[in-house]
Amino acid sequence: MLTIIPRDGTVQIANRLADVAVTKIREGQSKGLLYGMQLAKHPIVITIDADLENNPEHIPNLIRQIASFDIVVASRTKLPRISETIASKTLGKMIGVADVFSNFRAYRKETIIEFNLRGGETFGAEFLVAAKKKRLRIGEIKYDPPARRKRRKGYMYF
Q: Which domains, ranges and CATH numbers included, belong to the chain?
């Protein structure tokens, strides 16, 4: 099995700031996110990618919006891949968000307790489809994303 440990201090910072910081053997983004979210202790759970492509300055707005919704998605105004754009334009219309692949979100803790997802790396879309089927209220904020890096660095694979 492949274990990924960030060398940039992410785990140490998360342990200091979060109520729960989880490192796991690689099982896919969906399972990892859901596992950590289900372990969280607070009534609002925020998910944000550790690669700094989501600006944490939007977290207060996500928290404000969660008062009216079960899930709030921070949708990027520009998506990096054509496949994400096409899927978000079609699936996003049914769900009510512009970016179904964004994992920068706020959740009410009670809405995620019973979720069980099958996908490995499609957490954003799969979770929103399941949430829509459960008739959860899904809200959205939009933000202009920073330019994407060409190559990701900072991980140790072994």
A: 4-157 (3.90.550.10)
